[in-house]
């Protein structure tokens, strides 16, 4: 029988002075460090690694760097130039990666190699055109998917694209090219953002099978009452926030969810009347916004069931302060601040009361005069300017003189790096679609505005960045308030970490850091939809 192998010699261990812990020889320490590095993975030279987080953002990268540590939990790759070819298969072999930031890159497809443990994926500000079921199936644990500011169309979303994503809770598709609500949405969905798309019709059962949905944002689409099924919102029994601003509604939609709705925005539509029972039984409603519509009066008792209401937006309506609105004045006095904050309830007619707050009037509203035909500030006549295409360049420091950009379309610089677009009176009830072409890229952002307004102000990246930063600060405060009540809530802790990571990686746009610079805007497809 062969003798057992001799054990390898063990280097002598030196005893520290005064009986301290043993001191390993320098060679042993170096070997140990090398073994640990091989196990955990070294940090790529172009990145910075700290506690499971790998920061490779804002490096001008065209591909995901090699040598990512396998223990990485959060990977920051935003604000680079990474295209589809720059996403390697090895990215899908990071077993611990839970959060991936790839926004503001050059992607046109959903990454095909997603890590299996991924919970949160940020792809905003790319040029992604569609959603592939096979790619999404590689991340079955995905909970948050951010696809704002891309080019996703309804035709680009594969059938049952989300079939394997049963845990998806947040889906952000703001500012894309959707013409309809995506089908086959996962049942766990809690928040769905579809604002600033081209959605013009909502058919029967569009939101069927979404029992957990709590927040639905549909601002800035082409929705009108006659193109929305009666059951559109009635199936959403747990909905707490519904936003329908900047559409073409003539009245609040039928069958709004009532039991748990806390926030309802109908601002910037064409609402000229509100049925008497439109807000009945909405006892949980806290915030209601009816600003920027064509309302002259409201039916008596409209707010009787709104015992929880704390914010009411009524600004920029042609209110006629006669006896028909006296009930609202009395109701407001009973609900005096701080219980209720009311914004913008100022008389527009009759002329003797114009500009006066309704809540301060007394006997002046006793007269039962009839409003003049057509509310003040309503749509005027005029012919469509027709389709036109134009490109304009403006400098914030330049002369404010307007420049004609196309037949019936004027563009001029506005303070703060904004751009003002004006047009002639629109056809009654029409909406105007403005398409903004990004400089140096093919992505298009569309904006829908009511034609009778006569102008639109597009804000620079400075204003957009400031708004984004404010939203992050608000989200952080919300999570911190929740954790003060529930210190051990893991979901709140993860949310706070995510917001803090976004704040840590926040950078002002280069044009803001450099001062003002020139603002280039291309307008195309100027037409009445």
TrEMBL record:
Pfam families: LRR_8, LRRCT, LRRNT. GO terms for cellular component: extracellular space. Residues 42-74 form the LRRNT domain. Residues 317-369 form the LRRCT domain. The lineage of its organism: Eukaryota, Metazoa, Chordata, Craniata, Vertebrata. Residues 375-384 have a biased composition (Gly residues). The gene is FLRT1. This is NF-kappa-B inhibitor-like protein 2. Gene3D superfamilies: Ribonuclease Inhibitor, Tetratricopeptide repeat domain.
């Amino acid at each position: 029988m062969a003798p057992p192998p001799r054990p390898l010699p063990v280097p002598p261990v030196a005893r520290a002075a005064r009986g301290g812990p043993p001191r390993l020889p320098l060679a042993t320490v170096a070997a140990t460090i090398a073994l640990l590095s091989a196990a955990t993975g070294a940090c790529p030279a172009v990145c910075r690694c700290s506690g499971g987080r790998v920061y490779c953002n804002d490096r001008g990268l065209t591909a995901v760097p090699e040598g990512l540590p396998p223990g990485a939990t959060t990977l920051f790759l935003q604000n680079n130039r990474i295209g589809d070819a720059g996403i390697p298969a090895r990215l899908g072999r990071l077993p611990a990666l839970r959060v991936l930031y790839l926004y503001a890159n050059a992607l046109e497809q959903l990454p095909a190699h997603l890590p299996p443990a991924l919970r949160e994926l940020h792809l905003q500000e790319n040029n992604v055109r569609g959603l592939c079921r096979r790619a999404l199936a590689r991340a079955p644990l995905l909970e948050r998917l951010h696809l704002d500011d891309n080019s996703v169309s309804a035709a680009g979303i594969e059938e049952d694209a989300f079939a394997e994503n049963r845990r998806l809770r947040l889906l952000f598709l703001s500012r894309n090219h959707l013409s309809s609500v995506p089908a086959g949405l996962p049942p766990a969905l809690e928040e769905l953002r579809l604002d600033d798309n081209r959605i013009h019709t909502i058919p029967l059962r569009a939101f069927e099978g979404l029992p957990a949905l709590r927040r639905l944002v549909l601002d800035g689409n082409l929705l009108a009452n006659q193109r929305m099924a009666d059951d559109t919102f009635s199936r959403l029994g747990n909905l707490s926030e519904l936003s329908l601003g900047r559409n073409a509604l003539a009245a609040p939609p039928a069958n709004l969810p009532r039991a748990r709705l806390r926030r309802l925005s109908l601002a910037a539509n064409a609402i000229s009347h509100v049925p008497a029972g439109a807000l009945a039984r909405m006892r949980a409603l806290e915030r209601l916004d009816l600003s920027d519509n064509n309302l002259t009066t409201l039916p008596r008792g409209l707010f009787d069931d709104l015992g929880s209401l704390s914010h009411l937006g009524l600004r920029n309506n042609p209110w006629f302060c006669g006896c028909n609105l006296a009930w609202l004045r009395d109701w407001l006095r009973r609900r005096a601040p701080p219980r209720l904050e009311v914004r913008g309830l100022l008389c527009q007619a009759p002329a003797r009361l114009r500009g006066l707050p309704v809540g301060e009037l007394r006997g002046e509203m006793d007269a039962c005069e009839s409003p003049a035909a057509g509310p003040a500030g309503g749509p005027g006549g005029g012919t469509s300017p027709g389709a036109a295409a134009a490109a304009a360049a403006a400098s914030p420091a330049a002369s404010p003189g307007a420049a004609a950009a196309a037949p019936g379309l004027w563009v001029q610089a506005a303070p703060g790096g904004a751009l003002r677009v004006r047009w002639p009176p629109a056809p009654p009830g029409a909406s105007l679609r403005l398409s903004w072409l990004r400089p140096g890229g093919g992505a298009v952002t569309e904006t829908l505005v009511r034609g009778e307004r006569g102008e639109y102000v597009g804000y620079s990246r400075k204003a957009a960045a400031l708004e984004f930063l404010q939203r992050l600060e608000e989200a952080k405060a919300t999570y911190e308030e929740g954790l003060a009540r529930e210190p051990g809530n893991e979901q709140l802790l993860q949310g706070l970490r995510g917001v803090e990571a976004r704040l840590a990686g926040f950078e002002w746009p280069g044009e803001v850091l450099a001062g003002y610079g020139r603002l280039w805007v291309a307008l195309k497809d100027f037409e009445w939809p």
